[in-house]
Specification:
With 262 residues, the chain is α/β, with parallel strands linked by helices. It has one domain (3-257): Rossmann fold (3-Layer(aba) Sandwich). The protein has helices at 23-28, 34-38, 40-50, 54-68, 73-87, 94-105, 118-128, 156-169, 186-190, 202-211, 249-261, and strands spanning 3-8, 92-93, 108-117, 132-141, 144-151, 177-180, 194-198, 215-216, 221-222, 237-239. Strands 1, 3, 4, 5, 6, 7, 8 and 10 form an 8-stranded mixed β-sheet that branches. Strands 2-9 form a two-stranded antiparallel sheet. A hairpin with a 2-residue loop joins strand 4 and strand 5. The longest helix is centred in the N-terminal third of the chain and has 15 residues, at 54-68. The chain is globular and about 45 Å long.
């Protein structure tokens, strides 16, 4: 394949934040506290309305480093595996699945690119039958997260990872596609010849208008398991990812909202 289609995950392929969706399972597993989970529904609402800007993503990164230090990698994997289909399967946009099929039919690989971690993005990618994922990774020692971030798949980081993967795979970026809902992904969108704004936030909608980029609206979440056949060939390739627990955005968002209204 000489090209690829890169898809942001949250609000582009699925109708929620992938990190916020796992609030209750991580509370039950003892990884986040009760207050954070009680506020997770409201945090999800705020996220859906406002999206994520550069400042919030930077603060989320810092919060993640402090919160996940000491978490068991295996416990995170187990919780995601046990709850993935219940939480994520009904949230996948039918329009995204249709695009996956169209790009494959045109000979392009499908790549998920997300600031969430491999523990979320990898299993979701496998469930959706994509070819590769790019995600954030954190440092692991003795089966636990140290709290240090090795690679943050956000902003320019996404663009760098895409360019490195394209060079490795021999893809012509001018022939590639990219889809995202957020202005924080402008570097990723600008890296390809065919950028598309999906359910764009205000800043991205404005930028898309200025640059004559197409805008698409996805509105039909469906159960992906009923639409996605078992992928043939080798298993999903993980690109630039290793162990990460980027599963704590709900706690940070809830705390941020609480502080701003307190």
């Amino acid at each position: 394949m000489s090209a690829a289609a890169f898809f942001d995950l949250d609000k582009t392929v699925i109708a929620k934040s992938s990190t916020l969706a796992f609030g209750k399972p991580f509370y039950k597993g003892g990884l986040v506290n009760r207050r954070a989970v009680l506020k997770s529904s409201f945090a999800q609402f705020v996220y859906l309305l406002q999206g994520a800007d550069e400042d919030s993503m930077d603060k989320m990164r810092d919060y993640l480093q402090a919160l996940c230090a000491g978490w068991s990698v295996q416990q995170v994997h187990d919780i995601v595996a046990e709850t993935l289909h219940e939480l994520i399967d009904p949230l996948v946009y039918a329009e995204a699945l249709e695009l996956f099929a169209e790009h494959r039919a045109a000979g392009r690989e499908v790549v998920l690119v997300s600031s969430s971690g491999e523990e979320i993005v990898g299993p979701i990618g496998e469930m959706l039958g994509v070819d590769r994922v790019i995600a954030t990774r954190m440092v692991v020692e003795d089966g636990h997260y140290t709290g240090d971030i090795d690679f943050y798949a956000y902003g320019d980081g996404k663009q760098v990872a895409i360019k490195e993967l394209a060079a490795k795979r021999g893809w012509d970026l001018a022939e590639c596609y990219a889809y995202s809902d957020s202005a924080t992904d402008l570097p990723m969108l600008a890296a390809v010849g065919n950028p598309v704004a999906v359910n764009p936030d205000k800043a991205l909608r404005r930028a898309a208008g200025e640059r004559d980029w197409p805008v698409r609206v996805f509105i039909k979440p469906v159960r992906a398991s009923r639409r996605v056949p078992s992928p043939p060939g080798p298993p999903l390739a993980y690109v630039g990812v290793s162990a990460l627990a980027a599963l704590v955005a709900l706690a940070w968002l809830a705390g941020r909202r609480s502080r701003s209204t307190g």
